Amino acid sequence: MTTPVEATLVNDNGQADAKPEIDLTNPSYYINRELSTIQFNRRVLMESFNRDHPLLERVKFMAIFSNNMDEFFMVRVAGIKQQVMVGITDSPPDGLSPREQLVAIHRQFTSLLEQKMRGWKEQLMPELAENGIHVLAYDDLKSRHKKKLADYFEREIFPVLTPLAFDPGHPFPHISNLSLNLAVFIKDPADGSSHFARVKVPSTLPRLVAVNPLDPDELVLPTVQKFVWVEEVIIANLDRLFPGMEIVTTYPFRVTRSTDMELQEDEADDLLSTMEENLRQRHFGFVVRLEVDDRMPDWIREILASNLRVVSHDMYPVDGPLGLDSLFELHKLDWPSLKDAPYTAVYPSPLIGDPSRIFDTLRRQDILLHHPYDSFSPVIQFVEQAAIDPDVLAIKQTLYRVGPNPPIVHALMRARENGKQVTVLVELKARFDEESNIEWARALENAGVHVVYGLLGLKTHAKICLVVRREREGIRRYVHVSTGNYNSITARVYTDLGFMTADEEIGADATELFNFLTGYSRQKSYRKFWVAPVTLRDQILQHIADETTHGRAGHIIMKINHLVDPRVIRALYRASQAGVKVELMIRGICSLRPGLTGVSENITVNATIGRFLEHTRVYYFHNGGKKTRLFVGSADLMPRNLDRRVEVVFPIEDPEIRQEIIENVLNIYRQDVQNGYALLSNGDYVRRADQHEGDAEPFSAQKWYLNNRQTFIHTAGFGQIKQ
Fold it and tell me: Which residues are catalytic?
């Protein structure tokens, strides 16, 4: 049902506009989420061919693209295929049925796959060779190199290979998720019979075998490195696996399986054990993609397809090596001239000095951290100091993705050893981090930490740490809340905003949020926090509606990762119709179509892809020239974030910090031409640099931060956002 806010357009005089209402649920006004995901990954792939990046960073972008698309098939495509299997025909707001989405995904991904392989062969490989890094075909190696590789095969590879036959006495072998395999056809000279076998390429082996270390004579040439794909080494030595047999033909193939776990939390007596069992079952999900060497003949493809139960739209012939996420191995090479220059993160000046004074500092002022340009060390020290401070009584923290050997987890365990009350909410359902989170949850429990796993049916995505301290004036609460995870590794490659404060109302909100997460609280309102799934959606919609009443005096800016929620999109369309200027900076998925006459002509959408992964989430409302409203938090505008996750968005009220974010985050990214893409109304993206005129180098926000962060140079004169 349409609400009064939804039904009314407002003119410049604040009066109801008599124009007929446009049906904002029209599917033509929405971009399909899955196709927008492919567009995002297209932009990632395009960075592989962007010569503004050093060469090995471009190789890394191709590896990231490959990894991203693996995850896309494992989760998103798997989910759509399940809808088709059970007969679900419901369509998302864009109107595409599940079957139509699968067809469109196949068409667009096939085009991207061809573009990727062409770029690898025609651009990256030649440029790598020009710089001394040669990825060679086995057949192009010199005979002495082949002999060295044969010795390497005998020592390192042969012992771990296991050929599996397929015949009436041997069922078709299980093909594990993302594994690289060889389909081998052999003939028995004794009776002329033919046989099929599968050889798995173990993931424990380096995918790219270095040729140089095998030849001591070439170690005098450190500026040249040569590699060959491990599957080619195996193929060249298959006679060792099948002695006395004739190798007829061999082709690589690769399988992607569904990893989208269905977790019945209400039926789980022990969520931790249930997650562990589900992770074991993940390896047996149904096949959603079969990648094959494009030279593989149809009759072999048919054997694979029939036994793996895939159809034509699930099969992707590849002109080149399969699974190019292995290119991360090249990026690990110690070759500084072909990588981004290292940088030193800035340590905030108010926190320089004795770490034990961190609570004294936070009593005097709030602290804003902009990672990775600002060091993540203050966040670690915040928890470490709380762990040893005799006046700290309790620490409560959420953990979503912590990474390997996380210093904050170790600090929490030390806090418990020191007698603090420590409560940690570990999100076991953080996709592809489940195993790591289970491991650290058990370690925390063994240290005596009270570990909880969140609420039924919800993921806890909020990033918050609460420290309770006894002081002379009484109990005081200190809070760190952020857009990013408590992960010291990603803090160097993701852009995020962190906020540290002793604000009493934020401390009270944090306490009530943890009561909501760990107990049976039905908290319905908070003082300053916007909390999903309780208040966040209503707050976002209300602030957009408030801005809509200001007409052309209104201005909304959102810098987020994804925009999918149809109710929020309709609200932004209504704001645009009322004349509000809406600037969206959306790194990833965007289902809104900008620039539609009568609907969204006042909306622009830009995306930034650069050295660092854009991860900050900022919400700006001009409020008609009155007091600007600025919010930061963990939430994107997707149904999953607003309805099925625990998220926290919080206000920035300190005038200096608010101005710092407006000028040194929002205004800076508005200027980004070098790394920016503009979304067109048809769903395509165009590079802003391609539209750049003049001799000056196109502006890059990330380069600006690396060059100027320490001096806090503020922008000026570029369409400044009014306070």
Answer: 461
